[in-house]
Amino acid sequence: MTLQFKPSETFRDTFTYAKTAEDILRFPFPFPEDEYMYSVNIEPHVKGGPTAAFQAVFDIDEHYVAECRERAKVLAEDPKRCQVLPHMMAAEWDTLELIMESLAADYPEHFTLTKAGDLWTWVNRPLGLQQSFTFGKAETLPCPPFEFITRQAQGDFTLQDQREDNLFVDGGMVTTQADWSLEFDIGMTFHEWHGPVPLAHEKGVFDRALKYLMRLQCGQPVRRLNWTMTVNPRLDTSPENYPVWGPDKATVTPENVAEKVHLRVELQTLFRLPRSNAILFGIRCYLTSVADIARVPKWRRRLHRVLRDLHPDIIGYKGLPRYRQMVIDHLAPFDDGVPTSRGIAPDTDTLDAAR
Q1: 15 in a domain, yes or no?
Q2: What Pfam families would the database entry show (predicted)?
Q3: Are 95 and 150 in contact (CB under 8 A)?
Q4: 141, 66, 62, 160: which is closest to 100 by C-alpha?
Q5: Domain span holding position 288
Q6: pLDDT value at position 1?
Q7: Cα–Cα distance list, 4 to 86, 125, 147, 184 (Å)
Q8: Would 200 disulfide with which of 38, 227, 245, 338, CB 3.0-4.6 Å?
Q9: What is the arithmetic mean of pLDDT over 188-206?
Q10: Is the pLDDT of residue 290 over 60?
Q11: Which of 35-44, 210-219, 248-257, 287-296 has the lowest mean pLDDT?
């Protein structure tokens, strides 16, 4: 698909964000079965998968320019959304190299990276940027290397330092998060960072995940999907901004639930970085309204069943009590009881008409 960027769409105030038919079908729907419970659910991050969101190392879609502009707004309002501890400079350069090389390889029509020894030139056509710099010398960039490149990527990123038989969140660019704070979490261990998640700790999910990630090899990235729900297509649902977005939940009614409530999915990717031995954790956010999901028969049946049977502790943790039943009631007439195929693929190339 040829990307047609929509630079003027908004993720706040007027909420003009909308998806084309192609963009709906490339959505990484998070439920491979008709029920949901926490699991490690990690798989190799290789190109190719059930939707087009898995076709590149770092996915770029029609919302790229608008999302980068939204990130710039958030950083102007709160610069602490990007923080990296001083000992992570090698990981900053690792991240810049990985993202630049990946974008240039996967989207050569939009990005170009040329190298002459340590003198590199980066061209980002969608954002109208060209920057020459010396690799390894931060003073040759307009801002630190991690911030420079993550301002030009969709989704959030954190840097995990591996030491003391643990992983520590020692840096990040976090402007599209689902109600957690980099300012609060920076420096935390893996288990401290995931402390609020119910049920998963007693099931040993995070113990197994940590052991797996401690053995993560360079050149063998992995991925998983995570999800929650959000009212309005708002990217910045941070604790710092809760007074702005928290009241949105009270605006949902049976009449507007399909347009207001969005399934918020994170395509989480993890890369072992070569020089620093740190782990780059990508948290790529996708938003799709209940109305758009209802245009895909398999997805609307499955979302109805997952929400209907969801464990009460997960309902509370994900902040769904106020509007979950309205979503279920809206989707119930679309669920004819037909069995759904395993996996997250939409199983269709076309959408049902909007209702």
Answers
A1: no
A2: HODM_asu-like
A3: yes
A4: 141
A5: 21-334
A6: 56
A7: 39, 13, 26, 37
A8: 38
A9: 76
A10: yes
A11: 35-44
Please, which residues bridge with residue 171 across strands? 84, 159
The token pair at 131 is 């920057």
pLDDT at 200 over 70: no
Residues with a catalytic annotation lie at 224
pLDDT at 269: 98
Q: Tokens for 150?
A: 């993550």
pLDDT digits 0-9 by tens, 238-285:
999 999 999 999 999 999 999 999 999 999 999 999 999 999 999 999
Tell me how many helices (H) and strands (E) the chain has: 13, 10
pLDDT, average across residues 330-339:
98
Question: Is 225 strand, coil or helix?
Answer: strand
3-state secondary structure of 239: helix
Q: Does the predicted model carry a pTM greater than 0.90?
A: yes
In a domain, 4, yes or no: no
Within a domain: residue 8?
no
Burial of 155 (0-12, 13-18, 19+ CB in 10 A): buried
Beta strands in 67-218 (DSSP E): 82-84, 111-116, 119-124, 129-134, 156-163, 166-173
Here the tokens at position 104 are 């240039």
Q: Which helix (H) or strand (E) holds 183?
A: helix 182-185
- Would residue 345 count as lying in a domain? no
- Considering only CA atoms, which of 57, 94, 99, 58 is closest in space to residue 277? 94
Provide the edge-to-edge strand list for the sheet that holds 222-231: 43-44, 222-231, 261-272, 279-289, 156-163, 166-173, 82-84
Measure the CA–CA gap between 264 and 48, rounded to whole angstroms.
21
98-115 b/e with 16+ CB inside 10 Å = b? Answer: bbbebbbebbeebbbbee
| Closest to 172 in 3D by CA, of 90, 81, 72 | 81
Give the number of domains in the chain: 1
Pairing of strands 261-272, 279-289: antiparallel
